Amino acid sequence: MARTLQRSHPLQSYESAFAALPEGISVKAEPYLSMTDLRLPEDVDGPLGKALPREPGGWVSTADGLIVWLGPDEWLVLSGSRGPGELEADLRDLARPNQGSAVDVSAQRISLRVRGRHARDLLSGGCSIDLHPSVFQNGRSAQTTLGLTGVVLLALGADGDDFRILVRSSFAGYLAEWLVDAATEYR
Amino acid sequence: MQLIHCPWCGPREEVEFHYGGQAHIAYPEYPSALSDESWAHYVFFRDNTKGEFAERWSHSSGCRRWFNAVRDTRTYTFLKTYKIGEVAQ
């Protein structure tokens, strides 16, 4: 009989470890999102150009997801409702007339949500970004290293206690171990 | 750890960056006209400055853009960083 592969989440086995985190820190693996890497010339205008965050280290929410600034001519578009192929095709149609490109990178990263009053201290232990809500609040993002792995860090909310981390799937286990280990001091 | 100021992302840890050698080496105008010796000079020969040195750096863990920096090779102090195509002020 043919065996079919079950789709599984890289952090499925960490659910109990996340549930046992000390009070003041909550880590949750978020459901898969479709992600497309969009490259466009810096001077692109029009509806697509206007929708993109232009400021370095910014992100904006859209009708079904968000757009993250990755570089002066590069953005990561995330969608919760459109499938990977659909999102890529939609963006490619928009990018093509502007000499841009859109490539599906949904399998590259997974999303983690870190919340709680100790969340900022926890993350500060692994990266040099100033995470204080006066500079890193809702709408700010940073590509940096957390622990030893590269992440895209997004700030949500205005109080500095709500973050989303996009991490490469193959490094997700490492990051989960790191977060659980770093959280022990808040026990 | 030393922080390097990426012209796009702002101050970041040094480990996020990648060194790219001496900056502002112009590609020969007529590469086909070069002798082997002058081609070798273009490809391999670099200054070994003691003091202020213009270099290329890449923010490889961040925005992955190349930029230029002026660094004091005696003290490893970054004096300034600027985008590709800009001139050091």
From TrEMBL, chain A:
Signal peptide (UniProt feature, chain positions): none
InterPro entries listed in its UniProt record: SoxG, TrmE/GcvT-like
Organism domain of life: Bacteria
Protein name: Sarcosine oxidase subunit gamma
Provenance organism: Kineosporia babensis
TrEMBL record, chain B:
Any Pfam family matching the protein: SoxD
Gene Ontology annotations of biological process type: tetrahydrofolate metabolic process
Molecular-function GO terms, alphabetical: sarcosine oxidase activity
Protein name stated in the entry: Sarcosine oxidase subunit delta
Organism field: Kineosporia babensis
